[in-house]
Specification:
Length: 282
């Protein structure tokens, strides 16, 4: 219950889904099997993030529909490919270490970018060329693959692209990413619940007990996000990325080999996101 209070609030107030909180705690601390945690994430987010999306649409909070449309298209493809072909090949612990290391690298670069007082910030995507459409769909596919493993991922992965490369305001990219993850998580829930039918009784029990919590705290998170300043919101993101990484390291307790691997992912991610931040959209 406590996990989902924080998880649903973060899901509604940031580009992270509630699974970014629930998945590591469930799998690494509580010993819940990864497939159970993933399916629960899809199930509970289908309620909480839908509530947040309804709040976003009802309050007319600015979003970018081009971003939502093309990323979601790729996300559906990635979700299907990941569910049927990727899940059997990936070790959950290693995947989670990559997950938190990559987002920490993004947080570092976002911090550096935001220190630049002349940084260009846009309210929405400009006219998209075929190259941009292909770029968004490709990132959506990769994000869908990530979501198939953890029950979340497409939202934060494509958020990185929007903020660093396309210079979209974080407070526009965030509600847009919430809508994307809402669509992705409903499809994921339907895929596992109706087609694969691999959601067990324990997942449904957890889901039912947490519904009242996420219905309240996810929209609350969205409301808070819409009221705070850009600077405060960016600081909130840095805090989430740092705590998420520190928590995963504390639970995983990697040896020196995995620690070096994590450091290499962080450095590689920093180089990638720095390149995207400097690249010209020509």
């Amino acid at each position: 219950m406590v996990t989902m209070i924080f998880g649903s609030f973060i899901a509604g107030s940031s580009p992270e889904g509630s699974a970014s909180v629930a998945y590591p705690i469930f799998t690494l601390y509580l010993g819940i099997m990864p497939d159970v945690a993933r399916n629960f994430a899809f199930a509970i987010q289908s309620i909480g993030m839908t509530a947040a999306t309804i709040f976003i649409l009802n309050r007319k909070i600015p979003v970018d529909w081009q971003y939502i449309k093309y990323v979601t298209l790729g996300g559906v493809v990635g979700l299907l490919l990941g569910t049927y072909y990727l899940i059997p090949l990936v070790q959950p612990l290693l995947a989670k270490l990559i997950f938190v290391s990559l987002w920490l690298s993004f947080g570092i670069i976002l911090f550096i970018e935001n220190r630049n007082q002349t940084r260009k910030i846009l309210d929405k995507l400009a006219y998209l060329r075929k190259k941009d459409v292909a770029f968004l769909v490709m990132f959506g596919i990769i994000g869908g693959l990530i979501s198939s493993l953890f029950g979340t991922g497409i939202n934060i992965f494509t958020f990185c692209l929007m903020v660093i490369y396309y210079k979209i305001d974080e407070k526009v990219a965030t509600p847009s990413s919430i809508i994307i993850m809402t669509i992705e998580t409903i499809l994921g829930f339907a895929l596992h619940g109706l087609i694969l039918q691999d959601i067990n009784h324990k997942s449904y029990q957890m889901w039912l007990s947490c519904i009242p919590i996420v219905i309240f705290f996810a929209p609350l998170g969205t409301y808070v996000m819409s009221k705070i300043s850009n600077k405060t919101f960016s600081n909130f993101l840095y805090f989430i990325f740092l705590i998420q990484y520190a928590g995963a390291i504390y639970v995983i307790r990697p040896g020196w080999l995995l620690s070096i691997f994590s450091l290499m992912i962080i450095l590689t991610g920093m180089v990638l996101f720095r390149y995207l931040g400097r690249a010209k959209m020509a």
